[in-house]
Amino acid sequence: MPQKPIVYDAPTPEPRATTVEALQAQILEKLTYSIGKDPIVARPHDWLAATIYAVRDRIMDRWMESSRETWRTSNKRVYYLSLEFLIGRLMRDAMSNVQLMEPVQQALKNLNVDLGDLINMEPDAALGNGGLGRLAACFLESMSTLKIPAYGYGIRYVHGLFRQEMSEGWQVELPEEWLAHGNPWEFERRESAYEVGFGGHVEPVTDPDGLIRQEWRPNDHLLAVAYDTPIVGWRGARVNTLRLWSAQPIDPILLDKFNSGDHIGALEESARAEAITRVLYPADSTPAGQELRLRQEFFFSSASLQDIVRRHIQQYGDLTSLPDKVAIQLNDTHPAISVAELMRILVDDNGMKWADAWKVTKGTFGYTNHTLLPEALESWPVALLERLLPRHMQIIYQINADILGEARNRAKFTDQQIANVSLIDEHGGRRVRMGQLAFVGSHSINGVSALHTELMKQTVFADLHKLYPERINNKTNGITPRRWLMQCNPGLTRLISDRIGPAFLDDIEKLRGLEAHADDPGFQSQFAAVKRANKERLARLIKDRMNITVSPEALFDVQIKRIHEYKRQLLNIIQAVALYDEIRAHPERDWMPRVKIFAGKAAPSYWNAKLIIKLINDVARVINNDPAVRGLLKVVFLPNYNVSLAEVIVPAADLSEQISTAGMEASGTGNMKFMANGAITIGTMDGANVEMHKEVGADNIVIFGLSTEEVEDKRSRNEVPRTAIDSSPRLSEALESIASGVFSPDDPHRYRDLIGGLYDHDWFMVARDFDSYWDAQMRVNALWNNKPKWLGMAIRNTAAVGFFSSDRTIRQYAHDIWNVPTA
């Protein structure tokens, strides 16, 4: 039976006033009584904390009301499980969404404190790496905006991925200390702590009714403790919760060991537990690294499911209704072990029959696939799972037996098709395919762009799609326009509002009204002035951080994203070398000034990606210091790319580089952020670029390169890339200068193997797309020199971005997958 209902008719605090006077008084109160500082001696970080506490109090009122409303109405809840949440700085986001920016700014001004300085001091939460985590953050904000009751579940990383610094052009990984001084946005929930087990053994247990069930008896336990952060929707529509799990030992110190003098051994359990939530994506190139990463994934999945089940039983009492009241979305394969864990909870802990539990599980889960790359579709050695999660391995085997039986008996699959759909990969050592597990355990599997979804059906999940043809659907990614237009580009937001009215603030599709003004010379001039101001701000940042002077008059050509060979930063920097050669060889031509701006992190164990960063910095050193270039070309690599840095770069970009090898980028969201801020895309027909081409029109985007089909054809025929290189003198010269040590005189052979790979196999089609890319960049030159044409294209990009709002994406999830209403 459900527990006694929680009564909400008791007195509640009066909502906090939002006047300038009230805010000013409370900031002072927080400074004095929460921070313990006299205003006379308070430092900027003290004012930052006091301001956050004052703003947070006003968010608390709506947060608690949102929770009460969900309990009163018994609305279905959405739970979004993600190993990453790249939420960025929260203060400006929260103030903007509850319309407190102006009163807080004035309140601080009255206290002789500048709000802008405080905003820039707030650390970025180091909870993600790139697009996957930023998408999760955008989705949570949109769920709050659309009044969908939701929780995000993830890990409270102490250090996150890493802080990137440069040492002689090489990436250096250092701990990200974002929690060093606490996090004023979070609330520890000691009552929401769950035991998570590992290892041990499984024993059959006979119940009083004679039925035999399996009982897992782990030999290693730790606690998952919840920390909650409010996620505010636009205009305070709703405040949802990001719940992050911190790993803590059950026994922080083994006192007998400590007292016997074994001080280090006494703390071993504590260190082992805390390692789970210390770093995002520990290197999994070693067995120990693989085990830690699997422990992370199970830890947060198990804690989240225990929390979800506890909440559901508390309110409804009966787990058979779980699919009616709960929707759990798996953000990529990282939480895929949740399928086996929910089955264990339903069957072993709650006595549900296997068939009923499987129906409940499939009805509850949805799975979002973000990649077709084999290395990103996780798999784990069977031996590791059997040792670490023995009961879950049993459950996976049982699920697999059911699936393979269905494939053989109902679908009449061949042996090869049976092998393809199996949850166990038998090639090169038996491994559990986590993507397959997430697929079979979910009622909905979605891709994140139209092209990606079709490729899923044709490639990685082809036979599972034949077995379950109704499950795969598309949900093209989106971005929140609040952070990626209104907050990061207030000048453009004001300009648009003055021209077409403020209705787009609540319905981003109304940006289409800008199209009528795209060729208006007066509006173009105003639009250009906003872009110029944003470029001047970025130029100052580049000067401050890198001591490189760039001209805001130049075209800002930007590629900021995770460093990976398929994203082809290598193609971009090779083109920079070729352009450098052309400028020096033909100084008489009318070259336009260009600044190539790069940012992004390489995985610590990904040697080629780190080598590409070094190459970018080596090329930058030579080009930026060569007087023969006359400042016409500059190359900049900005270290430690994060949300806050992106919020400065994106509004300043003129050209958005979205140049991945066709068929390899699932969607992309950086392309959408640039589009919203009036940058023109140069890109392949890959990921969401395909839909951007449709939305903005062929005349307002610069497309180049091989198609997905052409890439596959060349790979299948093992075509020799050397022919493409030899037929392109410009490419040959650029590759020769890189490989021969022109840019690395201290180590002439540094890039020999990197460039040699383009001659040997060129898997990512860098050489074979080079001439097309060069020609596209020359088209960009011509467009840039025709300012009315360029500005018209830029304005039309902003006007067409409405489709790429995360509000649209979440509405589709809500309607097609979760079955929940939206505002």
TrEMBL record:
Recorded GO CC terms = cytoplasm
Where would you say this protein principally sits, based on its record? Answer: cytoplasm
- Which keywords label this protein? Allosteric enzyme, Carbohydrate metabolism, Cytoplasm, Glycosyltransferase, Pyridoxal phosphate, Transferase
InterPro entries from the entry? Glycg_phsphrylas, Glyco_trans_35
Q: Which cofactor does it need?
A: pyridoxal 5'-phosphate
Q: What is its EC number?
A: 2.4.1.1
Q: Give the family, as the similarity comment puts it.
A: Belongs to the glycogen phosphorylase family.
PANTHER family associated with the record: GLYCOGEN PHOSPHORYLASE, GLYCOGEN PHOSPHORYLASE, LIVER FORM
This chain belongs to the protein called: Alpha-1,4 glucan phosphorylase
Organism of origin is Devosia oryzisoli
